[in-house]
Fold each of these.
Amino acid sequence: MSGYAVVIERAEDGGYGVWSPDLPGCVALGDTPAEAVEEMRAAIRLHVELLQERGEPVPEPTAVGVDMVAAA
């Protein structure tokens, strides 16, 4: 399986959420960024398995560029 780009966001409660633009509805949470990413790995595996079981297409990972934008 190829790698999917993920977005890590800090939650208001201090935890972290992770989601992938290529896999709508596939999300994970964790107390730290590393924990959230590890949970996302498991979520992606399960998400892909479910799509395959249903006979639905599995999205291909897309190339993503990353930019940091600072607010003035």
Amino acid sequence: MKHLFKMNKLRQEQGYYTAEFEFKLLGIAYCLDKGDYKKGIFLIKKLTNEMETTEGMIKVPKFDNPEDELNFYLELQNPVTGAFMDDAYPYSSYHGPTENILIYLDKLARKINKPLRLKYPLRYLDQINTPETLIRYLDDIGTVGFLASKFPQTTFHNTRDMVNLIAEVETSDEDEDLVIQRNGLYKFTPEWKEAMLKWFYDYQDPATGLWGPKSKSGKLRKKDLSNTASIVKAFVDNEGNNKHPDYPLRYRHELINSAMEKMSADVPRDEDIERVHEWDLVMSKTIKMLARYLMKYADVEDKEKIRDRVKEYINVKFEKYYKRDEGAFSHYAGEGKATLDGSAFFFIFWDIGAYSLVKQRDLWGIDIKDIGNAGTYEITESNISDINKLLESVGGNSVRFYSGTQEIRDLTSDVVLLGYLPSAEVPDIMELTYRMRRWLDSTELTMGNWVAKADLQERMEEIDTVGMMPAENLPEQVYDILINDKGLTAVVFDQMQLPIHKMILTGGLK
């Protein structure tokens, strides 16, 4: 398994189409768990040969326009099943990669102002289009054996792949991926959708608040934060409010406790590549789940613990995944190039409030008006070197200089200079945004295992600032601004991009 993950890393970096890879692994896991060892072993050999030799793999070309790219991916649809998945693998592996590709195709279609039209119907969904067949399917893939539960990921993943099909377009959050419903690619009855919602409602574990694979007796086999984070959105909106009066989100505090326990786990060794990969997914999705849906139910002490865990995770990501020369992140720890899947981590800063004063206050109870104030200092030609000493005295990661001395109303507007403290551990969000924009504009990668370039570009459009690089000579540049300006407000941030100190700088010519 470790070998396959290493080969997937290589093929991603080489620009091969790898969107089916992890779903193929889940298909193999299904065969082995259900006792079909002959097929499972056959598929292991098939996938290994494919990844080692690239035989049968598709190298994604460079496209001249979105229409060419759309037509390229449309050709990958299976004419028999309608899925975007190799039909040599079990049925349970079909929907995940298909929905991922459809989401990307929808973005491409909207770029050229055309409706998304597939070459073939999504016939594979016919097998589960009644409440009865759906529940049998969910029970089948949601139940795993003892050995299968020890894999980094289980076939329970395939249950949460179905979650987006519950929602209605008219009542959904803007960020929900309802590509099938919105484009009329398949129609499910209200009874079918309620059957799925009720299945997940009943499947939640009361002791932990989690969803996850269960034994035949109904016992939770594994504390599955990764898939839980995707299921929660079926029950609550982005404000953490219940969507369905008859099916409210239960066991919120148990869920928060389970999340904090999982976040406190040790980081796997780098050589355990599949474990590190799963740890990374769990951490990222757990943080997003807490920030989006649950933080308002956490008490002050829990928020402090969560902040500590988030800081540790961010430090690990920059230490082991960040490719400074590219300005983006790799999918796996250690050597290698930046990838689309890896660089999706960047948007965790959006979720934790790096761009929003309101989010910082709501999530962490931090208001920039109430942070430590180091006072007002006049910077002159004779004491220009004191700027660094002043900053060092308060500690922190980075410092942004805002034009003027008025109250700061936006974290990324009016930033005229950026600098770092000696204790800096990670790039400031201003520099990181600048570098990420540049990498997205230049990379020839278009599709990862589950993240498309268009997905990242679309999310980047929501960010108002273009970012900036740090000052080359901070004291001199600060002084040059102060000569012709009424003053600067220097705000020091930690590695979570939360403000911790501020000071006012005024200028003079002495």
Amino acid sequence: WLGTVDHKRIGLRYIVTAFAFLLLGGVEALVMRIQLARPNATLLTPAQYDALFTMHGVTMIFLYALPVLSGFANYLWPLMLGSRDMAFPRLNAFSYWAFLFAGVFLYASFPLGAVPDGGWFNYVPLTSLDYSAGANIDIYALGMILLGISTTGGAANFVVTLLRMRAHGMSIDRLPIIVWGTLTASVANLVAVPSVSLAFFLLWLDRNAGTHFFDVAHDGRPLLWQHLFWMFAHPWVYVVVLPAMGIVSDALPTFCRRPLVAYEAVAVSTVATMLIGFEVWVHHMFATGIAPLALAFFGAASMLISIPSAVAVFAWLATIWTGRPVFRTPFLYFAGFVLMFVIGGVSGVMTAAVPLDWQLTDTYFVVAHLHYVLLGINVFPVLGGIAYWFPKFTGRMMNERFGRATFWVVLIGFNLGFFPMHVSGLLGMPRRIYTYPSGMGWDTSNLLTTIGSFVFGAGILMFVANALVSARRGVRAGENPWGAAG
């Protein structure tokens, strides 16, 4: 079983492994939230908080968000395209094992006492030898390069599979939206991952070979790091969003008892979102002294990206409105996703306004936006997708009553946990701080965030428990478990 190259088994491995990392990242988040639940807390030292903060971000963004979607794509693509397997089965298996090894390598830093602590964004010069002399940043750099190899191999495999392996008659205007989303994300990975891999390699050379790419004292450019990193990291947002949007676009019509409204528009909007996404990385750098003309251009482009995203939202709403919705557990997650998508999108357009971004960029408002975009827009489709395809994965149904209860716990916990962060940010709470004094007006919102985080964590555990029990004891699924039409 360990040596298999079967796409279904590899897909399930990705999903299970990604959920294991999700739980690890969740534990790190809850420890940080205990620290921030009240002012002047001493549970964590600044160094411990920095380490947890970094590994939480790395885990959720790089070890959970994309791998779990790769699991769906690995399992479903050959079935949807009518191919026997992925184009390169051994490369497919290698990509999984490289991802797993990279995750284990990064977490081995805990027993070694060299945990990466420069933030998931790893800004220089704070991560140079002058300020971080241990092996922690080197471990992060090597782990990210290995993850880049895994991601690039997987992306190439998806692209070739679509181009060379799809069944005769499967024209591009008949592709499922999840295929469009994963294809677009794969092309983006092939373009963007070399940028961040180069950045980490140059940083490793600065730290270990005496080069000065980012050392301003030797005519290096610290800002070059941010350009190389965000040229990758902003498209990465859409890499972990577009396949999730594809899950919703393909599964939602089952519960609305009608085809997706405006299929062609949704497919085009998927590609347009990624194309524009490559043009807006500088909005992460508005406060770095960028020229006014560039600020105007990238601010306008950042607002423009809301247009193709809105096309998909209106298509989902029209599908629900003109259909006959059946309120089963997957449908609830997909409907919740639309709400998370709108909230995250609105806060994103707000920070695209340069003067407002200058005020909010280093506050918890951006943390709230990040979690709605990267977590809410990913987790809700993933949970709904697992529930939807669970009969395909296991031959059994998840417990419907417990599943609905789990959805409400997840929805309430998520919004109670992350919406108050907007308030904390508007009240001026900085990002990346390990504690704060009393009397700043942040006490209540931080306490609510901590409570909501634990509720959300409980919801995730409920979902995992439901999946584990149902896989062994669930009701056996019929040939058409959701009563889909046609």
Amino acid sequence: MHAPPPSLRVPTRGEILLLGTLTAFGALTIDLYLPTLPSIARGFAVSPATVQLTFSAFFIGMAIGQLFYGPLSDRIGRRPAVLIGCVVYVIASLACAMAPSIEWLVAGRFAQALGCCAGMVVARAVVRDRYDHRDSARIFSLLVLVLAVAPLVAPTVGGYLAEAFSWRAVFLVLAAFGGCVGAAVWFRLDESRSAATEAKARGESVIGAYIDLLSSRRLVGYTLVSACNGATLFSYIATAPDLVIDIWGFSQRQFGAIFAVIAVGVVGSSQVNRRLLLRYAPDRILGVACIFAVGFGAALLAAALMDASKWVIMAGLFAVLTSNGFIAANALAGALNVDPLRAGTTSGLFGAANFALGAVASATAAALHDNTPLPLAVVMAVALVVGAGAFYGLAHPRHSVTA
């Protein structure tokens, strides 16, 4: 079954909810799990650092898995690819729930990532299959509304499950969630891959497709600007608990509130971006947003160097992270527009790069952490400068599509 070419039809609420849920698969799997870390460490009698390996395994799985599902969805279709991912996710979640050792749990989290990343890859590809460049950017901004539910709700739910039952209950809930998503995909998600996409995928090797995509200056530029700006969020997540709770003295509940405020800020900026797209091209908004993001990063770095108050630092962090709402959707839409017949493969490459660079940024920020906000500010400022340079040096419309 093949889909018609992209149209300007308005997506239904059901479509937005399903695609948003697929997009939020990874975030929900991370955020629901966060409150269980102390109880897992106690249960297996291991150090918190050892439990952190479950995060490393998850991020590695997310990066590797997206490189697999992207070409697969171009070749066999969007629906089969995401259904395979849901099956893997459910089995892996059950394995995590029954883990007899921390090593088993680490392996289970890796497999869990291999499953849930299918939803992220396919959701992005489906949007590009159905909508043109500007409209896809608007849809991606709309999906942020669903994506924002994860950091707002999941940590609270995960904490309740871990306290009322045990950390294993979290994985049972995730397994049930994966099953429900699989059922929704089976009954509600229509195939969107075109016949031309299938023909192109079957006529080339996966390695050849990736090499061809990486030869595109614009695709590399869009991917880097997104990955660099996403790296600011990854580095914040890696260092924020120590910074906000241990150093600034906020409670865990207050930390959750701060995280929620940032999430609301990202949602707000993404919805402003959706309105701006009615008047301006995605690349124009992206270019201006990159400049502002660099300015926010520089201001944050200056504040950290001057040992400014925690309130000033938090304002700078809010500004930097909120700018992602103007960058992420437009960069993603631009990347998927470079070669629409390889939407799945492009989506996989785009997602893998974002997770890989995010992992590097978070590891760097954590390694440099010195009980001040300075290392985080440095990592963020450098990432934002590199991202802006990638857009203006590689992805800017003055470069040809094939350059």
